[in-house]
Design a protein that fits this description.
This protein is α/β, with parallel strands linked by helices. It folds into 3 domains: about 1-195, NAD(P)-binding Rossmann-like Domain (Rossmann fold, 3-Layer(aba) Sandwich), CATH 3.40.50.720; about 205-280, N-(1-d-carboxylethyl)-l-norvaline Dehydrogenase, domain 2, CATH 1.10.1040; about 290-420, NAD(P)-binding Rossmann-like Domain (Rossmann fold, 3-Layer(aba) Sandwich). The chain contains 13 helices and 13 strands. The strands form 2 sheets. It has an 8-stranded mixed sheet, sandwiched between helices. Strands 10-9-11-12-13 form a 5-stranded parallel sheet, with helices on one face. Helix 6 (about 175-185) links the parallel strand 7 and strand 8 (about 190-195). Helix 4 (about 95-110) runs parallel beside helix 5, helix 7 (about 200-230) runs parallel beside helix 10 and helix 10 (about 280-305) packs across helix 11. It is globular. The structure holds nicotinamide-adenine-dinucleotide.
Length: about 425
Amino acid sequence: MADVAVIGLGYVGLPLSLAFAAGGLSVLGVDSDVAKVETLAKSISYIGHVPTSAVADVVRDGRFRATTDVAELRGADAIVICVPTPLTANRTPDLTYIESTARAIGRHLRRGQLVVLESTTYPGTTDGVVRPILEQASGLSAGRDFHLAFSPEREDPGNPIRFADIPKLIGGTTDECRRQAERLYGRIVKKTVPVRNCETAEAAKLLENIFRSVNIALVNELKLVYAAMGIDIWEVIAAASTKPFGFMAFHPGPGLGGHCIPIDPFYLSWKALEYGQRTRLIELAGEINTAMPGHVVARINDALNDSGLAVRGARILLLGLAYKPDVDDDRESPTYEIMRILESKGAVVAYHDPHIPTIRPGRTHHAVQGRRSVPISADHDLFVLCTAHRMYAEFDFATLAVPLVDCRNAARNPPSRFYRA
Ligand SMILES: NC(=O)c1ccc[n+]([C@@H]2O[C@H](COP(=O)([O-])OP(=O)(O)OC[C@H]3O[C@@H](n4cnc5c(N)ncnc54)[C@H](O)[C@@H]3O)[C@@H](O)[C@H]2O)c1
C-alpha cells in the first residue's frame, strides 16, 4: 500500500518521489528500467543533483520503495505519471511512453484512485489520450469512478529554488478531480494554482517553454547581428538588464538543449495543424536555435585558420557535454551536434565534462556511447567552451595557451588567442 505511486523515476519522477516522501507520504516508485530500481534499492541516487543521502533517508524510513511491477499500482491512492515525451524521428509527438503507461495503469485501476499526468504534452492529451485508454482498460469512468488531472512539472535541475516554493498548476477532468489533485500536491507545495481544466494546464506549461525557446532564439539572432557590427551581445544584455521593468534577460549559446525546450514547442506546432493553425514563431525560433551549432563550427574554423590549421585533423576539446551548467543531463545537448559536424569534417574531437565522466546509453547519440571525458591539457589545438560549468570560470586557460572559442562568455582567465561564438 502507498499514498502515492510515481511512474517514471527520471529527472522529474525521482525528485518528485523524494518530495512526496519528505512530505510524510508513503511512496511507491515504478520504473521499467531494472537498473534504476536496483540502484534505488541500494539507497543510491543516479542523478547528479539528487543526493544519495536524500534517497537513503526515505528508503531507510520505509517511506520510499521502487519496483518494476506495475501490478503494485493497485495499492496506491494516487498515481502520478512522469514518463518521457520525446519527438519521433520526423519531429512529431511521441506519446508511446504515455500510452503504454496508461494501458498498464488501466489494467490495475480501481475505484477512488487519482491519476495525474505530469509529462509535458500538447493540450488535450490527458482527456483525449490518457482518459480513453484508462477507461477502456479498466471499465471505469473518469470523474465518476476515478479522478484524473494534469499538473505540469516545473523542475529546473541545478536551480537551488526549493520544490515547495514552486507553485503547482492543476487542471482536472472535473472540478472534483482537480480538488483531489490539489489535496495531494497541497501536502508538498506551498501553493497550488487551480485552472479551468486539463487543457489549460497543458497549454500553460507549453507557453512557459515556448516563451524560453523564442526568447533564446531572439538573443541568438542578435548575437550574430551585433557581432557583425562589432558590438558585444553580453555587454548589451547586461546593460538592458538594468531596466527595472519590461525586460527579462536571456542568454545566447551554442544551441538549445535538455529534454524540454528543444522539444515541447513542437508538440503544439503539431497539434495546431489539426486546427488549421500555424505556429510561425515557434518554427522560426526552432530554425534559429538549431542553426547555432553550425555558427559555432564556423568560428572554430576561423580560430583554427588563425593557427594555420584546417578542421580536418585538428585536435579539438569540447568543454561541457551537459546542456546547462553543473548538471549531469546531456539530453539534446548542442555539444553533440558540434561534435558530429566537426567529426564529419575529419576533426579529432574529445570532450571534458566534470559531471559526465562517460557518455551513458540513451535514446540518442548511440555512436558516441561509452566515450570518456578527458583531462583539460595542452594536447589540443583548440578548446571550445560549450557549457558554463562553474569550474570553467575559474580555470586558468591563460597558462595552457591553447586558443579558446567561448560560446558562453564563461572563461574568466582566457588565453591570449580567444574567440567568442
Ligand atoms: N527534465 C526536466 O527538467 C523536466 C522539467 C519539466 C518537465 N519535464 C517533463 O517530464 C517528463 C519526464 O521527463 P524526465 O526528464 O524525468 O525524463 P527521464 O527520461 O529522465 O525519466 C523518465 C523515466 O521514465 C521511465 N519509463 C519510461 N517508460 C516507462 C514505463 N512505461 N513505465 C515505467 N517507467 C517508464 C524511464 O525508464 C525513465 O526512468 C517529460 O514529459 C518531460 O518533458 C522534464
